[in-house]
């Protein structure tokens, strides 16, 4: 029997039918067994009803994207067959609930195997349609050739707080589903995935990784307002607050959230807030104040499709301009983006460090594909990113103040970064407002002071790219046919496309950008110069990332865009076709 390297399983139906929980059970078990996983939920912006799918890519080696095509499609309705049947690869399987009298006519004469099986009827044998997802799980395990014991153990654990009767009925539903497929297949052999051996890994959302990273960075204060697709960050912080002694404040809106987080930062804690595009717009004035007051706060912006409410459950990378330019005046701040779910953990820690090192707001920008989907990652190293609080002064080191003098919190230093004290420190008293100020924080409107303080706020950011790795470097050629640059979740699709070009003898370099503002032009220019063409891959209509390249880079005539803004993630083929157009 042939051993495959990966497969993609997808289940679809209506929201509220247990589709996600079915996928979660399967994914949790396979992650424990050492498989590399990447999951994707597609769902409508409503609580119940509307088409939804849960896709799971399972592989033997690390994967960074959901991939393309489907090997096993399990459908609870005809809509799933109609919408996703075309994704099924030759030799793949479609199973649909016989209750809906599925129409498989368009697959006649193809190499796709279509099975109409009594999912609902089998669930009702155990007394409830709610067990359809467990029946479907049994069917999936049969198709994929996995051992049933570990899944049955997981079902028992999942319903451990229920009665034994409920546990037994769910186990029976699983067995019935498994038997239906085994009987239908008979002696047919299906390519299976060999066991990889257990690994020390985690399977989690990017949002959960962000929350864990904030905790590892020493943050114990969060103020936020719930918003899709960012709410899981706050939810995770709430779950852990009692154990860690943290404080989480759910405010009345995003303005209050940003200002409350700023208050925590002013008091000396590592405070942060979390939002998405609409909330980021509301935070604009507060961020400008944080820039003026040089408050080191972190804002997580999990990007979604816009403008306005847009498509709240679909991916986009269209907040780049807002993150860079939304705050009024000569706003000085930092914008960074993680290149993977794993980096959501490590880079958010660096965001807290950068905020305190440069005493300014840092906007941390994953996208929805990272935030709301899960990936298996190596267990996190809690010591990889040491905490750096910048020029935070100790009370014992402060010289005695003579009234009416205040501490020079905004001292005009050579590097633009001033010593920092926090309220309550003896001899550390200063004023902090949104007004232009002198070195002690006292309001000042003298032209020379405004120029000096403005220059200071920008001068301090000149070394950010020297103290932070501005991009993931996958460039292997001294001279390349094409340089591809992406951000956030596009990494996996780009890496897979580049790997195929390598096999075809086409020299394609790849950089995945982390530092967006201040733009790392000096660090990028050598790679830019070494390529004949440059393709910028991003999820928006207007080429916001490409525009930053055009503003900051020489030889901008090389630049082309690969844009996708339909709410779906990039695929290898989509990226590859865009690169082919410039070859």
From TrEMBL:
The keyword Oxidoreductase applies. Residues 16-178 form the Pyruvate/ketoisovalerate oxidoreductase catalytic domain. InterPro entries: 2-oxoacid/accept_OxRdtase_asu, PFOR_II, Pyruvate:ferred/Flavod_OxRd, Pyrv/ketoisovalerate_OxRed_cat, Pyrv_Fd/Flavodoxin_OxRdtase_N, Pyrv_flavodox_OxRed_cen, THDP-binding, Transketo_C/PFOR_II. Residues 480-569 form the Pyruvate:ferredoxin oxidoreductase core domain. One of its GO terms (molecular function) is oxidoreductase activity, acting on the aldehyde or oxo group of donors. Residues 213-449 form the Pyruvate flavodoxin/ferredoxin oxidoreductase pyrimidine binding domain. Pfam families: PFOR_II, POR, POR_N. Keywords: Oxidoreductase, Pyruvate. GO terms for biological process: response to oxidative stress. Coiled coil: none annotated. PANTHER family: 2-OXOGLUTARATE OXIDOREDUCTASE SUBUNIT KORA, PYRUVATE-FLAVODOXIN OXIDOREDUCTASE-RELATED. This is Pyruvate ferredoxin oxidoreductase, alpha subunit. It comes from Veillonella dispar DORA_11. The lineage of its organism: Bacteria, Bacillati, Bacillota, Negativicutes, Veillonellales.
């Amino acid at each position: 029997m042939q051993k495959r390297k990966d497969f993609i399983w997808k289940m679809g139906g209506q929201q509220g039918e247990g589709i996600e929980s079915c996928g979660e059970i399967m994914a949790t078990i396979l992650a424990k067994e050492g498989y590399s996983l990447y999951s994707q939920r597609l769902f409508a912006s409503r609580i119940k009803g509307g088409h939804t799918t849960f896709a799971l890519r399972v592989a033997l080696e690390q994967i960074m994207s959901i991939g393309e095509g489907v090997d096993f499609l399990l459908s609870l309705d005809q809509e799933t067959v109609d919408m996703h049947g075309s994704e099924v690869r030759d030799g793949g399987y479609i199973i649909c609930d016989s209750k809906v009298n599925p129409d498989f006519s368009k697959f006649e004469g193809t190499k796709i195997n279509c099975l109409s099986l009594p999912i609902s009827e089998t669930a009702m044998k155990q007394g409830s349609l709610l067990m359809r997802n467990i029946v479907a799980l049994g069917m999936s395990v049969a198709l994929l050739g996995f051992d049933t014991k570990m899944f049955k153990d997981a079902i028992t654990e999942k319903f451990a707080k229920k009665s034994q009767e409920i546990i037994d009925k769910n186990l029976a539903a699983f067995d019935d589903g498994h038997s239906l497929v085994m009987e239908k297949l008979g002696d047919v052999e299906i390519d299976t995935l060999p066991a990889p051996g257990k690994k020390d890994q985690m399977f989690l959302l990017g949002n959960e990784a962000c929350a864990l990273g904030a905790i590892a960075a020493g943050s114990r204060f969060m103020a936020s307002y719930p918003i899709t697709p960012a709410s899981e960050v706050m939810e995770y912080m709430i779950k852990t607050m009692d154990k860690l002694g943290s404080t989480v404040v759910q405010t009345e809106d995003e303005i209050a959230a940003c200002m409350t987080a700023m208050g925590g930062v002013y008091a000396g804690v590592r405070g942060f807030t979390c939002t998405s595009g609409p909330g980021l717009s509301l935070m604009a004035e507060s961020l400008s104040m944080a820039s003026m007051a040089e408050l080191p706060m972190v804002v997580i912006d999990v990007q979604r499709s816009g403008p306005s409410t847009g498509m709240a459950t679909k991916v986009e990378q269209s907040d780049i301009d807002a993150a860079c330019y939304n705050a009024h005046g000569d706003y000085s701040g930092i914008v960074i983006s993680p290149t993977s779910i794993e980096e959501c953990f490590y880079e958010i820690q660096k965001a807290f460090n950068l905020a305190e090192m440069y005493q300014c707001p840092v906007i941390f920008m994953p996208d929805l594909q990272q935030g709301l989907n899960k990936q298996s990652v190596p267990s996190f190293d809690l010591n990889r990113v040491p905490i750096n609080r910048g020029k935070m002064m100790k009370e014992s080191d402060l010289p005695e103040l003579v009234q009416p003098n205040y501490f020079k919190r905004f001292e005009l230093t050579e590097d633009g970064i001033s010593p920092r004290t926090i309220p309550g420190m003896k001899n550390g008293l200063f004023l902090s407002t949104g007004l232009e100020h002198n070195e002690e924080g006292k309001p000042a409107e003298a032209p020379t002071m405004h120029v000096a303080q403005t220059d200071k706020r920008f001068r301090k950011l000149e070394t950010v790219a020297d103290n932070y790795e501005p991009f993931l470097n996958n460039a292997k050629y001294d001279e390349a046919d094409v340089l591809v640059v992406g951000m956030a979740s596009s990494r996996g699709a780009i890496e897979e496309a580049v790997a195929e070009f390598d096999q075809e003898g086409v020299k394609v370099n790849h950089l995945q950008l982390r530092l967006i503002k201040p733009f790392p032009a000096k660090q990028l220019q050598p790679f830019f110069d070494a390529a004949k063409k440059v393709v910028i891959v991003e999820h928006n209509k207007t080429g916001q990332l490409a525009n930053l390249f055009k503003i900051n880079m020489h030889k901008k005539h090389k630049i082309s865009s690969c844009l996708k803004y339909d709410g779906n993630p990039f695929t290898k083929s989509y990226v590859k076709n865009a690169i082919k157009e410039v070859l």
